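Why do we care about 3D structure at all? Because function follows from shape, and shape follows, mostly, from sequence. That is the central idea of this module. The next example makes it concrete: a single protein chain, its amino acid sequence, and then its structure expressed as tokens.
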Amino acid sequence: MSTTFDHEAPASGKTDSGRRGSHAVRWWVLVVLGTAQLMVTLDATVVNIALPAAQHDLGFSDGSRQWVITGYALAFGSLLLLGGRLGDLFGRRTTFVTGLIGFAGASVVGGAATSFDVLVGARVAQGVFAALLAPAALSLLSVTFTQPSERPKAFGIFSALSGAGAAVGLLLGGMLTEWTSWRWVMYVNVIFAAVALIGALLLLAKPEITERPKIDVPGTITVSAALFAIVYGFAHVESTSWTDPVTLGFLIGGVVLLAVFVRLESRVAHPLLPLRLLLDRTRGGSFLAVFVLGMGMFSIFLFLTYYLEASIGYSPIQAGLAFLPMVAGIVASSTTVPSLLLPRVGPKAVIAAGFLVAASGMTLLTRLALDSTYVAHIMPGMILLGLGIGAVMTTAFQGATAGVHHEDAGVASAMINTSQQVGGSISTALLTTVASSAATDYLSSHKPGALSAAQAGVESYTATLAWGAGIFAVGAVLAAFLIPNRALAPSEGEPVIAH
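And the structure:
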């Protein structure tokens, strides 16, 4: 038995590493990873559409409803770094398969839930296994596609699925809820997981692990507690206020714990998150770009869905279909920018320009009104958003894993997911406050009535979209100042077993 790196594997060898390195099989591996990534990303929104039906069926209160969403976010967000590092230590193939099986099992339990507690417990379990699955999928992509000629295309396809997943989740959630039952928004994960699991067992080579450092227990506990506190604090804002003692306690505690974590990581022999990953300007800037992208994207999916359904009367399926032009834009830019633009203008220009294009699309949507039409007023902004988001996402994903050694690929991938998750948590809390204030301000200066109430809703949604445009504009400025405009180095291939 010997080991070899993927990018050094013979193109037509008959060993495991040769199969992993062959052109044909490598692209089938991308199909497997993309299927798993699509399942995780669409699960962030597919449940939202089904919540009213689940609430009616299981009989839980409006105040409890948020825990179906928050439970998943807390488990996923707080355990991502640990999940990524476990993949580095015990093998990405193992954590990927474990994540798939666990996620599917939790989905079955959630779909069969007969009480609110079981449903929330299943969502928490989904978050736990997603924290294993998501970093493993991206890190496997990173160590599988190490050839500069193939890497941009592979990351483009993967990014397209990541960006489109949330919008597809809205459509799929509406279809399943309307045509079958809310329970199928959980059961459908089993289909995705089964396809990915069969492919993983057949195609993913077993890694050769010659050295297994100890897990950084103090760092793991500290950062998990910090991320939990931050995500919970921002989730708590939605039901209370920014000055609520519990909210402030969790947010301040989370920031303090993050500072302690950074201090710990600079002193331990085997850190959970090596600080060298963050100090590189390309990777650090890319993590920040993903954070800003997460902040802006949540305002699109959450508040634009509210507008489509509450203000102009779309059904859940119609609202999901309305996002398809944005999906098309994401797919188009994610699959063309890496090969056509990135080599010519560099990552700084692509990410900054992508944010500006997305900001322009969001700005168009701030002009929405009660009598807006889809083709004239909604679709153009959707297309621009998709083009901008796709360009930023595919470039930032590559930049965040650029030049990463295989033993750090998992935790680097986890940082991408963590950045997006925390960014989304912050913006959901912030923009919910913005929406509420805008509606209150409008109602206070207009005569009460049905029309005023409807217009106040539109004012609240367009206010959040204006903030989203501003967030994307800030992202463009940060990218222009922080990210160096040099070619993105590929990751190191993973040593795999050869017989």
